[in-house]
Every structure is written in structure tokens, then in C-alpha cells.
Amino acid sequence: MSSLITQVSAGGRIVIPAEIRREMGIQSGDQVILSYHDGELHIATRKRRLQQAKAIVMAGSEGVSLAEQLLEQRRAEAND
What is the pLDDT of residues 18-35, one digit of tens each? Predict the structure, then answer.
């Protein structure tokens, strides 16, 4: 599914079609993150953004313990 058409109603409300909500795992009452970039509105779930953030952290820390790095930084600061 690449795109669907939906209508903006009073107050700027947009209904996310059921097919997309199911695919994204969005339930009634869930919060979503809206971002606007280059003239396009993007919708993401908090869960998806957390997965993306974890992937970025893991990619930058292959073979390196982030906890160990933090401890080393704290030790160095304490010795200054």
C-alpha cells in the first residue's frame, strides 16, 4: 500500500483508514507522532520511533559497551 485518499474534516481532523491503522498497529486512544518535512506530513507510532532510535544507537555502538563508555567518561570527569 503506497497511498490512500482521505478527507480533512472540520477542525483539521484526518481519519487514518482502518487498513493503515491495522498495519501500523494503531489502536483507539494511541498517540502518534506527526512530522512535517519538505511539504509532506508523516505519521509514526511511538513504538516505531523507539525502534528506530534503538537501531541508531546499536549501529553506532557495534562491539562497544555504551555503559562502559559512560563509566569511562564519568571516571575521567571525576579525575579532572
Answer: 999 999 999 999 999 999
Determine the distance from the C-alpha atom of residue 21 to the mean position of all C-alpha atoms in its chain, rounded to a whole number. 16
Q: If DSSP codes are grouped into helix, strand and coil, which group holds residue 4?
A: coil
- DSSP code per residue over 7-35: -B-GGG-BPPPHHHHHHHT--TT--EEEE
User: What are 36's strand-pairing partners?
Assistant: 41
> Do 45 and 52 touch, CB atoms closer than 8 A?
no
For the question of whether the overall pTM of this predicted structure is more than 0.90, the answer is no
* Cβ contact 51:36 at 8 Å: no
The amino acid at 14: I
Handedness of CA 61, 64, 69, 71 (dihedral sign): positive
